[in-house]
Amino acid sequence: MNNKVKMQFLSIPENVGLARVAIAALAGQAPFSLSEIDEIKVAVSEAVSNAIIHGYQARSDGWIEMTATLDGQGLSVVIEDFGVGIADIEQARQPSFSSDPERMGLGFVFMESFMHGLRVESTVGKGTRIEMQRFARIQGALSRDVQ
């Protein structure tokens, strides 16, 4: 099945739940198990939370865009903000690193653990783009392996 969703929402904490519900509804159209859908929801939650907390530094007037594409391979998700950006992406991807001392710094760790691909692009002063993929299982194999 092929489907695509594009959403734009404000950088408020309540919209983390909105993103989770939307991605779960879309992922539910593919051959993902409930535990796989839960992992996808966590990865999306972390990306949206990072945009709110770090990208917009908890400002509620920023816009976050989420585009999710479902195809024969699985699910691709792009989360993009237009906030402060990340000065050092490699450092930000290290476990326990956070620009906010109140945070655990595990967002990227969860995204990498729960998805099959993660790409981060960022420009200081312009924002951050997170691209994630999760391949669907087809008869016991990942769709990327069945070709």
Task: Explain how this protein is built.
- By secondary structure, the chain is of the alpha+beta class.
- It has a single domain (3-141), classed as Heat Shock Protein 90 (2-Layer Sandwich), CATH 3.30.565.10.
- The protein is built from 4 helices and 7 strands.
- The protein has helices spanning 14-27, 34-55, 89-92, 107-114; strands at 3-10, 63-70, 74-81, 117-123, 127-135, 137-138, 141-142.
- It has a 5-stranded antiparallel β-sheet, covered by helices on one side.
- It starts with a strand and ends in a 5-residue tail after the last strand.
- The relative contact order is 0.20.
- The mean pLDDT is 88.
Question: Which key phrases capture this entry?
Answer:
147 residues; alpha+beta; 7 strands; 33% helix; Heat Shock Protein 90
How big is the Rg?
15 Å
Unreliable parts: none
- Amount of helix: 25-40%
Task: Let me know the number of strands.
Answer: 7
In CATH's first tier, which class applies? Alpha Beta
Order of helices and strands: EHHEEHHEEEE
Calculate the terminal CA-CA distance, rounded to whole Å. 17 Å
- CATH topology: the name is Heat Shock Protein 90
Mean pLDDT reading: 88
Q: Name the CATH superfamily assignment.
A: Histidine kinase-like ATPase, C-terminal domain
CATH architecture: 2-Layer Sandwich
Family: Belongs to the anti-sigma-factor family.
Catalytic activity: L-seryl-[protein] + ATP = O-phospho-L-seryl-[protein] + ADP + H(+); L-threonyl-[protein] + ATP = O-phospho-L-threonyl-[protein] + ADP + H(+)
GO molecular function: ATP binding; protein serine kinase activity; protein serine/threonine kinase activity; sigma factor antagonist activity
Keywords: ATP-binding, Kinase, Nucleotide-binding, Serine/threonine-protein kinase, Sporulation, Transferase
